[in-house]
Recover the amino acids of this structure.
């Protein structure tokens, strides 16, 4: 895999930090349930209560990161934000 270094805009940097925090939050919630109710029951509870919403938020954030990077690289001629 080729390594690519780019300078991120402040906006993109904040979105990436939000993604990191959201992924960590997802893991904390899952760990909370599995440590309390066991692996199988905890994962089932997480899936029922959080998975759909977390996946939706993660997808929205990933799209926002991509849009922000596209704008900052000058690949579009409009400002999304």
């Amino acid at each position: 895999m080729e390594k690519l270094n780019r300078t991120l805009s402040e906006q993109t940097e904040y979105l990436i930090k939000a993604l990191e925090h959201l992924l960590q939050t997802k893991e904390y919630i899952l760990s909370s349930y599995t440590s309390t109710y066991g692996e199988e029951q905890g994962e089932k509870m997480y899936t029922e209560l959080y998975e759909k919403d977390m996946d939706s938020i993660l997808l929205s954030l990933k799209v926002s990161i991509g849009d922000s990077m596209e704008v900052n690289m000058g690949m579009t001629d409009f400002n999304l934000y």
Notes: The chain has a mean pLDDT of 90. The helical segments are 10-37, 39-72. The first helix runs from residue 10 to 37.
